[in-house]
Amino acid sequence: MTILLALAAGLALGYLLERGDFCFHSTLRGLIRRPPQLDLFRAYLLTLLIAIPLVQGMIALGWITPWVAPWAWQANLVGGLVFGAGMVIASTCVTGIFYKLGHGMLGTLVGLATWTIGDLLAWRGPLNTLRIALNENPVVTGGMATTLLNLLGSTLGIGLLLVLLAAAALFLWRSPRPQQGDYWTWLPVGVSVGLFTSLVWLLARAGGANYTFGTSRVPTTLYESLLGGGEMGNLWIPVALIALLPGSFIAARTAGTFWARGETSARYSQLAAGGLLMGVGAGISGGCNLGHSLVGVPLLSLGSMTTTLAMLLGVFLTDRAVGLLSHRQPQPDGTSTGAAAPG
């Protein structure tokens, strides 16, 4: 039953991500582009606007008892920064690697392979010591993982949350409604992903899982179970993650957006380097854009919020560094990009 439910959940999420081309790299990097490209950020805000009250309501009613990511702020900051850098270098996120492979971007297989290596380096390789050190002594509140509500108290926490949600709702209300193209616009993407990532908690609970989606430690768990003699544990997360591929493939084939293609040598190198960094970053911070930003933030986990903000900072710093290097790159005439040629 667990495998069937996880398969259904992963297929549905893969379908939704592909139809919205909902890549978290584009979501965050769009904030700092000139001019800003905010459609995917709008979709993410709408997702949170729907998911936060629904998830918190189910917790209050006792329908779900989720695991909440710890607030190990050192690990959240370092891992988020590394993960953000990896997204810029690869021009995609971890979930993008999966759903883009499903709609024909075969070059993401390189990123998938190096992401696996990065995860193993963080959990079983030479970076394991660093990961453990950064995750020591997480901040707890009342003996539990720290969330916005238990840190600030119910009254102040709910009040602040209502103000933030109202501001997000006002921003979205005043946002333009773009015309439909090959992919869904931010409005149907945000509504569908917000509703689905909330209600899928009920499927996860029926499947015996206390978390819905994530990528961190999945390659390591598979390695340990296949080669190291470790226990596989609940199969929900690895099955749901793998099911993103056929879900996105079905979406792309039915919508006519499937396009099988390879990449240039430069893109293969970028995907390899970025995938490695994302695997390491997710391992250190205990989660990726899927596990922290789409699942953990609606739980109001301070660990997930800190990691998401660190990802944004990593995207900003790496984007600026890439821009600076491109500006200074020598041209065939001996000048730098953007520099005036001698008269």
Automatic annotation (TrEMBL):
InterPro entries: Sulf_transp_TsuA/YedE. GO terms for cellular component: plasma membrane. The chain crosses the membrane at residues 43-65, 77-99, 151-173, 185-204, 235-259, 271-292, 298-318. Its main location: membrane. Pfam families: Sulf_transp (PF04143). It is found in: Cell inner membrane. Keywords: Cell inner membrane, Cell membrane, Membrane, Transmembrane, Transmembrane helix, Transport. It comes from the Bacteria. It is a multi-pass membrane protein. Belongs to the TsuA/YedE (TC 9.B.102) family. PANTHER family: INNER MEMBRANE PROTEIN YEDE, SULPHUR TRANSPORT DOMAIN-CONTAINING PROTEIN. This is YeeE/YedE family protein.
